[in-house]
Amino acid sequence: QSLTYCIDPNWAPYEYIEAEQHKGISAYYLKRISELTNLQLTFLKTDSWQESLSAIENGHCDITPLLNYSESRAKTISFSKPYFYAPNVIFAHYQHQLVAGLSKVSDESIGVVKGYRLVDYLKGHYPEADLVQVNSELDGLTRVNNQKLDLFVSSFYAANYLIHQHNLTNMRIVGIAEVKDQLRFGVRHAHKDLIPRLNASIEKLSHEDHHKAFIMLEPVKVITQTNYSLAWEIAAIGSLLLVILASRHYYSLKQRKALARKNSALERLHRALEKKNKQLEELAVKDHLTQLHNRSYLSGKVAECINSKKRYKTECCLLLIDIDDFKQFNDSYGHQIGDDVLVTLARTLELCARETDFTARWGGEEFVIICPETNLHDALHLANRFREALATAEHACADPITCSIGIAELGYDDSQESWFTSADNALYRAKGSGKDKVSIASD
Ligand SMILES: Nc1nc2c(ncn2[C@@H]2O[C@H](COP(=O)(O)OP(=O)(O)OP(=O)(O)O)[C@@H](O)[C@H]2O)c(=O)[nH]1
């Protein structure tokens, strides 16, 4: 005989659907009973217990393997004798005090699963109770856990299983409901002739059969042993990070020190370079032998004098000095003595000139004094003073040093070239008139 059966799909661990398959202890009992009765049972999948009850009522489902007796169900269903017994308990928030039984509940809401026999029971025995019908055991337990419902009455094993599975830790059992589950087969009235066969098979179930089913009520084991491997991994990664950070810090310190050393070396180099540059600048404007300024330096000063003349009409004189018969010093005493004579003249020049004058070696044995803010009279005085000082200056050979001097006052329209030409002409005249003379350009 081939029959269909249906279950409560949300009543783990009693019965539930997993991967489209009927699971739980009712699956186990159903298998045993169909073996013992030789019944062919085909599973009719439903989405809820309500849907399963409706399927029995409208004839789509013939048998359901695990339900309690109730008068209302008895209208459409014939029942076998019970074969599995379980207590019902009352759940509440973990801070709720113990409840001595359902009869002691007064103002609190009591949850039960819609369609369960408990609904009829509570309505019948406690009509005043604030009954809340929830969709499933899990729905009721979750509401209590979240303090959305005061109490929830449920099968102990089913609730125990769900609490573990869903980690509902805000709740506890606070009392025992007087009703117990006495679970049995339910058969559509049309097949009530099956009841004796089912009862005979139930009688044949052994103690071991029941024990195997009972074991299936055990919730999924919670692993209480601490898994240290993650801690070790974290510690290892942490240590590695520490080592990396420490070595980075060490290398960055090392690099900073090396950088500081390089920076101070660079600073030293920079200072040395500045010094060298200064020396080079001085070399560029100084005569190496006499240490007087050279022609290129003087050209700048001459330009300043010309500008000053044009702007302020200030007086300015130029003395062009040439050592007389200098060639003879070289020829008679050698080049070194010639150099000494040049240096002697340079020192004498510096002694005689004022601080505001500019002295320079113009080239060879020719020297220049530019005297700003100086008229011809004073320039002549300076020239003669210089000649006298030179004549008495100590130097390396016995011959006296004399020089001829050409003086030119800067004219308003003079350029450097015309000014020096005037001085040169005057010098030429001084040489021509017997040397050791001073000649003025305007003469
Ligand atoms: N020792 C030395 N001699 C120099 C230097 N520069 C130029 N002379 C020499 O100076 C001499 C100049 O000779 P001249 O131009 O004939 O002039 P001078 O002998 O002074 O004759 P007058 O100008 O007519 O008095 C040359 O022999 C040059 O070689 C120098 O730096 N050192």
From TrEMBL:
The enzyme's E.C. designation: 2.7.7.65
Domain of life of the source: Bacteria
CDD domains tied to this protein: GGDEF (cd01949)
SUPFAM superfamilies, per the entry: Nucleotide cyclase (SSF55073), Periplasmic binding protein-like II (SSF53850)
One function term, GO molecular function aspect: diguanylate cyclase activity
GO BP of this protein: cell adhesion involved in single-species biofilm formation; negative regulation of bacterial-type flagellum-dependent cell motility
Coiled-coil region(s): 256-286
Domain GGDEF: 314-443
Pfam families: GGDEF, SBP_bac_3
CC cofactor: Mg(2+)
Cellular component terms (Gene Ontology): plasma membrane
Catalytic activity: 2 GTP = 3',3'-c-di-GMP + 2 diphosphate
Name of the protein in its database record: diguanylate cyclase
InterPro entries xrefs: Diguanylate_Cyclase, GGDEF_dom, Nucleotide_cyclase, Rev_trsase/Diguanyl_cyclase, Solute-binding_3/MltF_N
Alphabetically ordered keywords of this record: Coiled coil, Signal
